[in-house]
Amino acid sequence: MPVAAHRSTWTGGGEILVASQLEDSSGIVAFNVNGAPVAVARDIPPSVATVSIVPMETRFDKPLDLNEWEDADDLNGRAIGTRVRRSVLKPRMVEECGDSCGGGGGSTQTPGYYMTFSRIVDRYEPWTKGDPEIELHFHGPTDAGNSQYGADLSCSGEYALPEKTFNQDNAFWNGSVLLFNQSEADAFAAQFPDGHHVIAWEDDDTACLIKSDKESLSEILITAAGAVGGAALKTGGIPGGLPFAVGIFLATIFQDANWLLSNDDILGVYVPASARGDSWSDANYTLERNGQINGRAMIVKR
User: Fold this and answer.
1) In the predicted model, what is the mean pLDDT of residues 277-284?
2) Which backbone phi and psi does 107 adopt, to 5 degrees?
3) Who contacts 222 (Cβ-Cβ below 8 Å, separation ≥6)?
4) d(Cα 148, Cα 154) in Å, to the nearest integer?
5) Residue 13 three-state SS
6) CA dihedral of residues 239, 268, 54, 91 (deg, nearest 10)
7) pTM of this structure
8) Which residues neighbour 77 within 8 Å (Cβ) at sequence distance 6 or greater?
9) Sign for the pseudo-dihedral over CA of 45, 133, 157, 232
């Protein structure tokens, strides 16, 4: 039952639909309990509770540790509810506080690169599959002899490490989430002056483990590089920022991409807005996908 509002209110009974969708781009077929077809929209879930039959995203080979998870919004067991990870409840609750939290005593925030705002137009997750699993990944080489390998250097998302935890289920997100800490950035920059890049993903089944199609990903990266005029290095307007690669490195980094296994959805590549000719009042990076703007973000150094 992919819609949280359905899981938190449906307590049994015949007012329920069954829907199916094989591919994200295919139509949704739905029926009521009498077997009659029911028309449903692609972009808005029905008001009636709906069970959805879609390709597997759950890792059945890795069952949940029941000591780390608990049920929420289940009407004291009468509804399905949602199982949430205890370790991410607190980060979810405080992320909206951002820099306006009181308390004094100085900041214990880890120095590094933070995202404070995100707007994503198309999250590439239909309602039949539930909320999107949006993650931001820093990619770059780990071996000076293999500069075209895009290793996953850091991951921020719903099930990442505490300081790197954030959850964006809607078009807009505000808060403060660590993307790349300063020690990671310094160590990387010392070895690879050509820079890194940040990619946004909708990660279907394995948190912080990217699986995608090599050819489609390479095409998106090349398009993103072309959109900023093949510039060599940019910092995206971040004073003292880590070099951000948008040129040849960006376009070729995934040519050696045999480690990409299946089909997570790439939402786009973050490129400095100024390099692309964009100007945002609330963001300094543009989320670029196949020549189109799929969003924007504010990334700052702290």
Assistant:
1) 92
2) -95, 140
3) 251
4) 17
5) coil
6) 0
7) 0.69
8) 71
9) negative
